[in-house]
Design brief:
With about 775 residues, the chain is α/β, with parallel strands linked by helices. The protein has two domains: about 375 residues, Alpha/Beta hydrolase fold, catalytic domain (Rossmann fold, 3-Layer(aba) Sandwich), CATH 3.40.50.1820; about 230 residues, Rossmann fold, CATH 3.40.50. The protein is built from 24 helices and 22 strands. A ten-stranded mixed beta sheet has the order 1-14-15-16-18-17-19-20-21-22, with helices on both faces. Strands 2, 3, 4, 5, 6, 7, 10, 11, 12 and 13 form a ten-stranded mixed beta sheet that branches. The protein is elongated and about 95 Å long. The N terminus is likely disordered.
């Protein structure tokens, strides 16, 4: 008994603190249920509020001058330029576009001819190796009165609105009606919503609509299927302008459904368009996240709604027709021989009252320059009244006639072959961007950032860090709520106590995790912390469990518990990538705000560090990060932005990240999977993993890589890591970075990484 009492007097106060039910400064945690699902719901509510508030922020981006038409147009030019970047309509178009007849020895270009008009199959140069392709309708009885680009919905063909094919009522065949009224009409083919060509035969075919197939790869490269097709429309306008050198005529653009979306953006960007007709697409965009993903525009909502985009059309003519559209309930269903995983999204007819309210907002913005604008309700698209207003905005002489019997075609082009050409050309253009993206990053990052001294590197990198955070990942303001820590003891081993912890960040948003505190802390001692991050669909406990029968143990090997056994303080946070579509909606809601899932995660980690730094047994300068898989994605992004992480270890994720997201030539690519939230706008031309690794320097950085990890081949990993190793060597700190290859799969190996943590967090290894 005396010996026991003596031993008890030697127990340090910190050991008693570690065993206490509550952590210093914490209140009791009383939440029950699935905190992961609660976190996702809270972030969802937060993003919904942010979306509602975005409209109020827009006025700060505009300085409209309505005094004269010229002054107005000049005052919105910077907004026009930013919209162009948002939709990726940035590839150079040819100075002198060429319009070609599409014909063979057995299939002439002439599809129809009568005493009033001719219809030809045509194609024209648009940008890069991409061509527009469709129909050219030309009046022959009288001199033309105007030139019009007429754009059908994505699931309609040019032949249908030109009267060469059935499926559309004569009244709605607006390309034909405008041609019969005396307009030269060019009808482009749109990439449709079928999935026929979405995939690579030798790897996998998917159920992604063609528009999503293009969107995924283009988005990562700072392009967009919207931007690509707007460029096709504008190259048609270029050709019209070229023709106008001989015979000047007004130019118009008219669209229905997806075609109206493109007409809206095209007219907003190009002041040569005199009159614009939009049918079946106009209204508030606060629910953009619920529409098909191929309509997702990064950073749109803080500056642009449909009304703001329409205001760029003033002082030119605009007609908005409220007409029903065919409902789209999502991607094509998965069928045998195809992978699922296409993103959900719905298209439905805009609510009339909301569309009218948005139109009225646009008119208020444009002031006197919207005096002739019209909002028209029609039972079907291409109604007489709406189309007449549009035609009248082109030429007072244009007179629409009653719908006539559709024309009789001599032949109809092979729509499937044409669609394949359109898809293939966009894919090839995007893949070419991928192939040259490394040299673009070289010029944008490495060549403008020659390495100096290691102690100056952080300051040198700061502009690039800000660009990554603000322009690519997206930055929310710092936490707006006090941390208000709540905790409860949930675990105990012979060596440590485990506490569940919740911290407030923003309204409805909290950070949550498990803190493992060693029992052998000495009085006044401050120890290093390792933040151990789980992967996709994981929870903090997955990183702690040592049950060999648990599925999580196969991947994580209980690395949180192992590091706590070694004497580190460990915090295993929860990141909200859990719940399949439930969490992917967060990315969808964040993107139109110019934010991403990692905008939220970075804020949560900043709050976690805020709190860890308040604990009396934590060394603020020795807080390291170690993440597996999606946690490895976190290891690349969060420490690159948050300088308070003293080091970072990326396990089972590091690779040639841009190729992994964009290539259609490798089975490792996210182009073939259901992770539609992975794509980050224009990352391909700004920051690959090597650049992120450079932003982590001069802090220690390590990669853990299993030879049998299906995330990527070793060659991709080694190629990208070589650039990281080189910058550390240039800075004279090559000893601060390393990579461990091991014989194993997608898992924590815990050999060289543990030694790395001991060495660089200055904590001795125990025998």
């Amino acid at each position: 008994m005396k010996r026991l009492l003596f031993a008890l007097t030697l127990l340090p106060a910190w050991a008693a603190l570690a065993a206490a039910p509550l952590l210093p400064g914490a209140k009791p945690l009383e939440w029950e249920g699935d905190l992961s699902a609660k976190m996702v719901r809270g972030i969802n509510a937060f993003l919904t509020t942010q979306t509602a508030e975005a409209a109020a922020q827009r006025a700060g981006h505009w300085a409209r001058n309505t005094t004269t038409p010229a002054a107005y147009s000049a005052s919105v030019e910077s907004n026009r330029a930013r919209l162009k970047m948002r939709i990726g309509a940035v590839d150079a178009r040819p100075a002198a576009p060429v319009m070609e007849l599409v014909q063979t020895t057995s299939a002439p270009a002439l599809l129809h001819s009568d005493k009033r008009l001719t219809i030809h199959a045509v194609r024209w140069t648009a940008f890069g190796g991409v061509q527009g392709e469709g129909l050219l309708l030309q009046p022959v009885a009288t001199p033309p009165l105007a030139r019009v680009v007429a754009i059908a919905d994505a699931d309609q063909t040019p032949e249908q609105i030109a009267g060469l094919a059935g499926g559309i009522a004569p009244q709605s065949q607006f390309a034909l009606r405008l041609a019969q009224a005396g307009c030269v009409v060019l009808v482009p083919t749109l990439v449709n919503r079928q999935d026929t060509w979405s995939g690579t035969e030798s790897i996998a075919l998917t159920n992604q609509p063609h528009r999503e197939w293009i969107y995924r790869q283009a988005f990562q490269m700072g392009r967009h299927v919207i931007g690509y097709e707007v460029q096709k429309v504008l190259s048609a306008v270029d050709w019209f302008a070229q023709e106008n050198r001989q015979t000047p005529l007004p130019i118009g653009v008219a669209g229905y459904g997806e075609g109206a979306l493109l007409a809206l953006y095209s007219a907003a960007l190009d002041t040569r368009i005199h009159s614009t007709f939009l049918s079946g697409y106009f209204g508030p965009r606060e629910n953009l996240w619920a529409e098909p993903i191929y309509r997702n525009v990064f950073g749109l909502l803080p500056e642009f709604g449909d009304a703001e985009i329409a205001s760029l059309i003033a002082p030119r003519n605009l007609v908005v027709e409220q007409a029903p559209v065919a409902r789209v309930d999502g991607p094509p269903p998965t069928r045998p021989g195809r992978r699922g995983g296409a993103a959900p999204g719905v298209i439905q007819t805009p609510v009339t009252a909301q569309a009218r309210e948005e139109f009225d907002r646009a008119r208020r913005f444009a002031g006197p320059h919207a005096a002739r604008w019209q909002f028209v309700e029609s039972e079907a698209f291409g109604g007489d009244r709406a189309l007449s207003h549009f035609a009248g905005g082109l030429s007072a002489e244009t007179r629409l006639e009653k719908p006539q019997t559709p024309v009789t075609p001599a032949r109809i082009p092979d729509a499937d072959a044409r669609q394949k050409r359109q898809v293939d050309q966009m894919v090839e253009h995007t893949q070419r961007l991928l192939r040259f993206s490394e040299s673009v990053r070289e010029g944008n990052f490495w060549k403008v950032l020659p390495p100096g001294a290691a102690d100056q590197w952080t300051a040198q990198c700061e502009p690039h860090r800000q660009r990554l955070w603000k322009e690519v990942i997206g930055q929310f303001p710092p936490a707006s709520l006090p941390a208000n820590p709540r905790s409860r003891q949930i675990l105990e081993s012979t060596k440590w106590i485990g506490h569940e912890v919740v911290l407030d960040v923003w309204p409805e948003v909290f950070a949550w995790g498990i803190l493992l505190v060693p029992k052998d802390l000495k009085q006044g001692e401050r120890r290093p912390v390792v933040v151990c991050q789980h992967g996709l669909e994981g929870v903090p406990m997955d990183t702690v469990t040592r049950d060999p029968k648990a599925q999580a143990f196969q991947y994580y090997k209980g690395f949180s518990a192992e590091l706590a056994d070694r004497g580190f303080i460990v915090f295993a946070p929860h990141n909200p990538y859990r719940g399949q579509d439930a969490f992917r909606v967060l990315q969808r809601k964040a993107n139109p705000l110019g934010r991403s899932l990692f905008s939220v995660i970075t804020g949560q980690h900043n709050r976690i560090i805020d709190w860890l730094e308040t604990l009396p047994f934590v060394d603020q300068k020795r807080i390291g990060f170690y993440g597996l898989s999606y946690g490895g994605k976190t290891a690349m992004r969060v420490p690159a932005l948050v300088g308070r992480y003293a080091l970072s270890i990326c396990s089972a994720d590091f690779n040639e990240w841009i190729k992994k997201n964009v290539t259609v030539d490798a089975r490792h690519s996210y182009m073939f999977t259901g992770e539609y939230e992975m794509f980050e706008y224009n990352l391909g031309h700004t920051f690959n993993y090597a650049e992120m690794g450079a932003l982590i320097a001069p802090r220690p950085f390590m990669v853990e890589r299993g030879h049998n990890d299906g995330v990527a081949p070793d060659e991709w990993v080694a190629h990208e890591y070589a650039k990281v190793r080189r910058i550390f060597a240039y800075l004279g700190i090559a000893d601060r970075t390393e990579i461990e290859f091991f014989n194993g799969p997608h898992t924590i190996n815990g050999q060289a990484t543990y030694r790395f943590l001991h060495r660089h967090l200055d904590w001795p290894e125990r025998k």
